[in-house]
């Protein structure tokens, strides 16, 4: 399936500690390089990732309309995880209580909600892959603590 929509503006990254996310698996480092990543997204990484994602996503124009109505694409977060030497991300999602909250009038089923949430995760991963494969060549300097035991 292919989604034929214009490429939206990349997200503006805010200073958020990724360790605060419920699903965080970030270790330690506080140098998240958001400014550098945001610049790379603007220089073409977001467009490349979005176009690659749009070619393979399972969501349709109606579901993408829900995504844009909820401004979900603006809610992405990307950051440098120096410990793992990877780009980390947090994808926006529709909450579990969407029905009770009347979150959006076009949301009609758990299938739609699950499909949108999965698509946002896939877009986030695509952006990370494009950033790391085509834009980032940072090397993290890691120094082992002096007090490590000598196993010789």
TrEMBL record:
Pfam families: DUF7992
InterPro entries xref list: DUF7992
Residue ranges of every copy of the DUF7992 domain listed in the record: 3-152
Name of this protein: DUF7992 domain-containing protein
Species for this entry: Haloplanus ruber
